[in-house]
Amino acid sequence: MNIHEYQGKSVLKKYGVRIQEGLVADTPDKAVEVARELSQQTGTKWYVVKSQIHAGGRGKGRIVGSEQRGVALAKSVEDVRTISNNILGKVLVTHQTGAEGKRVNKVLIAEDVYYPGPSEPKEYYLSILLDRGRNCNVIMASTEGGMDIEEVAERTPEKIIKEWIDPKVGLQPFQARKVAFALGLEGDAFKEMVKFISALYRAYAESDSSMFEINPVLKTSDNKILAVDAKVDLDDNALYRHPELAEMRDTNEEDPLEVEAGANNLNYVKLDGNVGCMVNGAGLAMATMDLIKLSGGEPANFLDVGGGANARTVEAGFRIILKDPNVKAILINIFGGIVRCDRVAAGVVEAYKAIGEIPVPIIVRLQGTNAEEGARIINESGLKVYSAIEFKEAAAKVSEVLAELGV
Ligand code: GDP
Ligand code: MN
């Protein structure tokens, strides 16, 4: 699960990681109010207005229909108001959002940490993630902060430092020193970076995260080390251990159909094709998607209804698939092992009637316990539903239906 920058920073702060301080707002008035408050707390005279969306590249991204960037410096509270007004409720397009962009509902008003001083502020890159190949966590660091790290990895891979950490042993102090040294730091900045890395690792491990990406980490002009940005990805399977983190979920940032599916305990992933499918079991779902492609269609989704398909789950699945305007036909492919085919067939008929007229052809392939009985129920229902028992039959029916529709 991804969370917003302001939420990620609050997790870091809780573990003693120094951050660029800020306060969040959802209206221009509130933005001005929190800017004044922030100025009192931190003494900052300038502010950074940062769009809160689940995507990076905001600094280079633009608000649709204007020149406004997704991250902008404000030199007065009036600037804060103008910029917040330009951003809030508008759509921001970055290289990570796709052309449709994302609507900005909140802005983070942050203190300006690039102030002048004895040395130049310098940006670094730091991330911690799971390296499945090595069964380890890995810290990645680079002096090329603020840039797209994929680009750095491609052009100058030698500029990415990697340090692997055994999760059972944890981060050893010498490892944090090694990374700070490799970044070319010395004196106070070196010590600060060692502290920063140690606290960051603890935050990562104790919050059961699967990725932290801090880009940039800033060395301020007076040698403080702090997180300017925070991309935090939490492990969904561990959220039950962190109710306070689970609450940070923002469903506005997720695909609405996937949210609805999750609420119904369905595993749904939206795809771009024209044939919706509803299947029990992930393996059969993959095979069914292959079948759709072999029949000349493209799967519109992955949908696993799980082991106990009944009228309620089938109906929920139907409703979700039908909300996708690209769907031209639906293939239901259920193996009746634990669940009996006649039960599923009755569920399909019941769900169909509950929804009313379904505007696209449906092919139902039921195989396993009571398959013939299932086919009979479908055929005698009088609904526009085709039944099949064999995989091949279902494939032929999908091709036929697509040909009739001319797609
Ligand atoms: P991203 O573009 O979505 O990764 O957003 P970031 O939080 O990384 O911010 C983008 C850029 O804004 C940074 O790389 C900085 O150059 C700039 N920025 C962020 N905070 C400040 C600040 O306090 N002062 C100034 N002058 N620039 C900042
Ligand atoms: Mn960033």
In helices, the fraction of residues equals 25-40%
Multimer state: single chain
Number of strands: 19
Q: CATH homologous superfamily of the largest domain, by name?
A: Succinyl-CoA synthetase domains
CATH C-level class of the largest domain: Alpha Beta
Q: What is the averaged pLDDT score?
A: 94
Uncertain spans: none
Subunit structure: Heterotetramer of two alpha and two beta subunits.
EC number: 6.2.1.5
Family: Belongs to the succinate/malate CoA ligase beta subunit family.
Catalytic activity: succinate + ATP + CoA = succinyl-CoA + ADP + phosphate; GTP + succinate + CoA = succinyl-CoA + GDP + phosphate
Annotation keywords:
407 residues, alpha+beta, Dna Ligase, domain 1, D-amino Acid Aminotransferase, Chain A, domain 1, Rossmann fold, 3 domains, 6-stranded antiparallel sheet, 4-stranded antiparallel sheet, 19 strands, elongated, binds guanosine-5'-diphosphate
